[in-house]
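Thanks for the sequence, V.! I ran Amino acid transporter transmembrane domain-containing protein right away. Repeating your input here for the record:
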Amino acid sequence: MESGADARNDRRTAEEKAIDDWLPVTSSRNAKWWYSAFHNVTAMVGAGVLSLPYALSQLGWYPFSFNPSLLWALESQYLSYLG
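Predicted structure:
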């Protein structure tokens, strides 16, 4: 008696089998949701960190450090208004 995975593999075409053999990631992945969440966060943080030197070079020291402080102040005022 064949297992479920063997029966499923038998229904694939030769082209699908060749592609699965070539791909480094197969259909037998066992990833959890937090792996995806971690990779999404690191991608966004990485893009933000890489953009900081460019922003600093374009703005200069004073506007670069004043901007986040201003945004923080505005956000805290907005959040206290909501609360």
